[in-house]
Design goal:
The complex is a heterodimer of chains A (268) and B (298). In chain A, a hairpin with a 2-residue loop joins strand 5 and strand 6. By secondary structure, chain A is an alpha/beta fold. In chain B, helix 4 crosses helix 5, helix 5 crosses helix 7 and helix 9 runs antiparallel to helix 10. Classes of the chains: A alpha/beta (268), B mainly alpha (298). Chains A and B meet through helix 2, helix 3 and helix 6 of A and helix 6 and helix 7 of B.
Chain lengths: 268, 298
């Protein structure tokens, strides 16, 4: 694996993965990943299906804990602690590392309640109305919904629902936003809106996004990590990180042959 | 490998013998058969209702039927203690069986690891739902009347009926909880909430319509059940309103008791009691359906 440190400031990294391995039902699904995620940048994970990008993404907020068949080994350092240390509380972690999912999943509650629910439940002391408004503004959704905050979140269009989910994640004031193919269920116009949103959000948050869309990665990501599948000696497929570097480099002058072949469309 | 390509683009009907008209005619026949099935069911139901009303409406409307205690004369007296008995039986079944049943379903679905023994438990609970109610009566007799010493009282009857209702409530609550999409749970966990918060604020509200359906079915069966209460010791003659630790009457027992009496007027009294029982069950169902509508967000 090659890592170009020349253009990426990995001295200030928000996540530092050291030898992360993921097993599903005893089978190794993702091989030793070493990666440093730079702060307040957009990092894209790209690669063909089954290469482990979403699996790795879910390690950053320990959502893999919810999958009984999944087992994670290795260290993942966040805020100077290994988040896989048994003493770390995943619930607290998830308040600082938020997630937006592939299919928009707003709660079947009002728009206001979608945003206010988590802060209120976690003991937010400030003004909830202001928090709701500022989250919706940051998600570029406020003007469209400010007169119908009592309407059900599920009554919005797909693109609006996804922006609502982003607003909901932001309301918890996390450091990092994990996005698992956030635009794959959206039409091109909504996709464009969400992409522009990400470019604005990186002023305040670090964003890691999994995407199947290479053009999207080249449009918005500062750094890109390319994953691929490999077959082990027993013929089982598993994912691995192949190359990680500044986006211009990955797309312009990839250092590995696999990356080069993927970028030029020879497989994937 | 393509064997031949036809230059004309029309569909080659000679290669298909689809008998379209015949298939559609057969479909129509089945449609009518299904309609006849529905009509038979509705017809029987209508016959039942009209018959009951014909036999019982007169007696139901005689003054005192709902407010007096039973008498050994067919034209006199009323079923007040039975109404109160059935009402309290239903209430206690609701208060006891619903929390226990939903709690059990929550544990099995949300907390228990999916091992072989959880599957065994699931199968056994399903079996329990099919056991005849008289067997539950015998269980209640042994446990509540004798072991716990409550005797043949309202509380024993109510707890026996609660046991009877539990399996159906557990099974339908499990189905309802299982039907909650994982995307909803993920959304909640992703925001940093605990398991109980997620269940309390998202899973349960989503599952309530399905759970209520199970509650309706189960409690209706319990209120209408006679066999188990016979064993536990319900009586058919009381001169007072039953209290929790006293002998009790119930509507199904009352119906049974009236039917076994030879004097002609008792048949009318039985029909009238059936009307009251049906109204009670309909009222309970209406409340549950209203609650289900209110909580239905999807």
């Amino acid at each position: 694996m090659t890592n170009s440190k020349a253009h990426l400031n990995t001295d200030d990294s928000v996540f530092d993965a050291e030898g992360i391995k993921v097993y599903y039902s005893g089978f190794l699904a993702l091989v030793d990943v070493y990666i440093k995620i730079p702060r307040q940048k957009i990092v894209a994970f790209i690669g063909p299906s089954g290469c482990g990008k979403s699996t790795l993404l879910r390690c950053f907020n320990r959502m893999n804990d919810l999958i009984p068949a999944a087992k994670v080994e290795g260290k993942l350092i966040y805020r100077s602690r290994n988040i896989y240390d048994p003493q770390v509380n995943p619930v607290k972690l998830r308040r600082q590392v938020g997630m937006v999912f592939q299919r928009p999943n707003p709660f079947p509650k009002s728009i206001y309640e979608n945003i206010a629910y988590a802060p209120r439940t976690n003991g937010y002391q400030g003004n909830l109305d202001e928090l709701v408004e500022s989250s919706l503004r940051q998600a570029a959704l406020w003007n469209e919904v400010k007169d119908k905050l009592k309407d059900k979140g599920t009554a919005l269009s797909g693109g609006q629902q996804q922006r609502l989910c982003i607003a909901r994640a932001i309301a918890m004031k996390p450091d990092v936003l994990l996005m698992d193919e956030p635009c794959s269920a959206l039409d091109p116009i909504s996709t464009r809106q969400v992409e522009e949103l990400c470019l604005e959000l990186k002023e305040r948050y670090t964003i890691i996004t999994v995407t199947h869309n290479m053009q999207q990665a080249s449009r918005i990501a500062d750094a890109t990590a390319f994953f691929n599948t490999e077959t082990d000696d027993r013929g089982k497929r598993r994912g691995k990180l192949v190359e990680f570097g500044p986006t211009e480099q990955i797309f312009g002058s990839p250092q590995t042959k696999e990356a080069e072949e993927y970028i030029s469309g020879r497989f994937g | 490998m393509v064997k031949s390509t036809r230059t004309n683009n029309s569909v080659n009907t000679a290669e298909f013998t689809d008998n379209l008209e015949r298939r559609e005619a057969i479909g129509k026949v089945f449609e009518y058969l299904f309609l006849i099935g529905l009509l038979i069911g509705l017809f029987v139901l209508a016959l039942l209702v009209l018959n009951i009303l014909h036999d019982g409406l007169g007696r139901l409307l005689t003054p005192g039927f709902l407010t007096e205690t039973p008498s050994r004369f067919a034209e006199r007296g009323g079923i007040r203690p039975a109404i109160i008995g059935s009402f309290f039986l239903g209430l206690i079944v609701l208060l006891v069986a619903v929390p226990i049943g939903v709690g059990a379903a929550l544990y099995l679905e949300e907390y228990a690891p999916k091992k072989w023994w959880t599957a065994v438990i699931e199968i056994n609970i399903g079996n329990l739902a099919g056991i005849p109610s008289i067997v539950y009566g015998l269980l209640g007799l042994g446990v509540f009347n004798y072991l716990l010493g409550f005797g043949p009282t309202l509380i024993s009857g109510a707890l026996t009926l609660a046991l009877l209702s539990l399996p159906v409530i557990i099974v339908t609550a499990r189905e309802a909880i299982r039907a909650v999409p994982d995307s909803l749970r993920n959304a909640s966990y992703g925001l940093g909430t605990t398991k109980w918060q997620t269940i309390q604020h998202h899973v349960l509200p989503y599952a309530i319509p399905g759970i209520l359906t199970g509650v309706i079915i189960s409690v209706s069966r319990a209120i209408g059940d006679a066999a188990s209460l016979v064993v536990v010791g319900a009586v058919s003659f009381l001169t007072f309103n039953p209290g929790l630790f006293q002998r009790f009457m119930a509507l199904p027992i009352q119906i049974f008791s009236y039917i076994t009496r030879p004097e002609p007027g008792f048949a009318n009294a039985a029909a009238a009691t059936i009307i009251v029982l049906i109204i009670l069950i309909l009222a309970l169902n209406a409340v549950a359906i209203y609650l289900r509508q209110r909580y239905s967000s999807h």
